[in-house]
């Protein structure tokens, strides 16, 4: 009996060495930049039109976001000069990406022990009708840079930390802070003088930290998850997020936070391996809750976690696959505390330093 035989075709794959990465990856990864131009150099150089356009964009941005205000210089107020910072950003192939101009306060006029660590929004002092806001040599009144009047904050005290550990934001508690409709950045200003410094001499090994603040929300009693991932000594990803359900213990809250961290780590690992074309060392995730670490490593604990949502057990699967290693970190070295709970000023500044966030001076240097 005849049998029909279908022609077999050999599958031919393209040469993978000739495949190009997506443009969004190729152009966006670790673009280089340089700066340190003075105003005079920018206005007399070959790129004067590009710098003027960049300065116009910066002034339009300040006006659109309402982060500056022209006022009369008050008596007995010392102004702080401002200046332009010019940065040329490059793509990874060496081509110019864009020209960026930033108008900043010359913080070198601030004094150690008085206002050196202060961050101010811009409030322009009009000394004469000829002086225009946005000029290269405008002046800002020292001590009157925040926009207090607009948000009825004339009597507000200066804080050196984002949140005060001694106050609650729960409106149901007596003595709690009143939550008003005040845009955060407009009321407290921008942290122009602080930034992340990446040391290119260090090996870019991926590692992270995970933590949770148990039942920190006094209204819903939900916990707050947080994670930070770093390449070498520079932060590349971070998150602070209220958990979607109430955890019944600190262990459960930490376990949920770990699972959320691993979801981010999975994406980061795939992205970095694609961009760098290498797998590298196994990422390390640090946590301080010993019980939560045991829940991940020891399957015998499954009876204690049956009530935990199934999606949070994703972490066990990835751990058994060897995608990451999980290690204990002492509370003093837990960097995520800065994202999950209010911290006193000394602890806040310590964590900020450990995260590689540095004070940047007007010449683009940084203070270690």
Looking at how many chains there are and whether they match, the oligomeric state comes to single chain
Strand count, sense and barrel status of the largest sheet are: 5 strands, mixed
SSE order in H/E notation?
HEHHEEEEEHEEEEHEHHEHHEE
Question: Helix- and strand-based class?
Answer: alpha+beta
Overall pLDDT confidence: 75
Residue fraction in strands: 15-25%
- Please state the CA-atom Rg, rounded to the nearest Å: 26 Å
Looking at the structure, what is the overall shape? globular
Number of helices: 9
Distance between the termini: 86 Å
Poorly predicted runs: 1-9, 22-32, 127-149
Beta strand count: 14
Helix content: 10-25%
- Biggest sheet strand order reads 10-9-8-11-12
Describe this structure in words.
- With 368 residues, the chain is α+β, with helices and mostly antiparallel strands.
- Helices cover 24% and strands 20% of the residues.
- The strands form 4 sheets. The chain has a 5-stranded mixed beta sheet. Strands 1, 3, 4 and 6 form a 4-stranded antiparallel beta sheet that branches. A 3-stranded antiparallel beta sheet has the order 7-13-14.
- A hairpin with a 5-residue loop joins strand 3 and strand 4.
- Mean pLDDT is 75; it is low at 1-9, 22-32 and 127-149.
């Amino acid at each position: 009996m005849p049998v029909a035989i279908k022609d077999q075709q050999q599958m031919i794959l393209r040469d993978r060495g000739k495949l190009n990465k997506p443009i969004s990856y190729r152009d966006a990864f670790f673009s280089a930049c340089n700066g340190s131009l003075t105003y005079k150099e920018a206005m007399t150089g070959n790129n004067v039109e590009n710098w003027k356009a960049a300065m116009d964009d910066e002034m339009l941005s300040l006006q659109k976001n309402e982060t500056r205000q022209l006022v009369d210089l008050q008596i007995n107020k010392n102004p702080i000069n401002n200046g332009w910072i010019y940065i040329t950003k490059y793509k990874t192939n060496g081509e110019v990406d864009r020209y960026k101009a930033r108008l900043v306060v010359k913080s070198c006029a601030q004094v150690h022990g008085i206002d050196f660590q202060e961050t101010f929004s811009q409030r322009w002092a009009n000394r004469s009708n000829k002086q225009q806001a946005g000029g290269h040599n405008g002046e800002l009144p020292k001590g009157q840079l925040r926009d207090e009047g607009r948000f009825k904050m004339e009597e507000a005290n200066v804080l050196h930390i984002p949140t005060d550990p001694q106050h609650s934001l729960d409106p149901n508690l007596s003595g709690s802070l009143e939550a008003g409709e005040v845009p955060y950045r407009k009321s407290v200003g921008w942290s122009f003088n602080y930034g992340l410094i990446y040391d290119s001499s260090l090996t870019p090994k991926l590692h992270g930290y995970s933590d949770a603040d148990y039942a920190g929300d006094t209204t819903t009693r939900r916990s707050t998850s947080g994670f930070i991932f770093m390449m070498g000594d520079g932060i590349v990803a971070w998150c602070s997020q209220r958990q979607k359900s109430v955890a019944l213990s600190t262990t459960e809250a930490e376990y949920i936070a770990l699972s959320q961290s691993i979801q981010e780590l999975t994406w980061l690992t795939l992205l970095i391996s694609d961009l760098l074309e290498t797998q590298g060392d196994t990422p390390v995730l640090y946590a301080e809750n010993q019980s939560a670490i045991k829940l991940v490593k020891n399957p015998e604990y499954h009876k204690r976690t049956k009530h935990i949502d199934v999606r949070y057990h994703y972490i066990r699967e990835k751990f058994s696959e060897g995608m990451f290693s999980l290690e204990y970190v002492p509370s003093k070295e837990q960097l995520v505390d800065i994202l999950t709970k209010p911290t006193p000023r000394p602890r806040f500044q310590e964590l900020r330093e450990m995260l590689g966030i540095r004070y940047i001076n007007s010449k683009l240097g940084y203070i270690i």
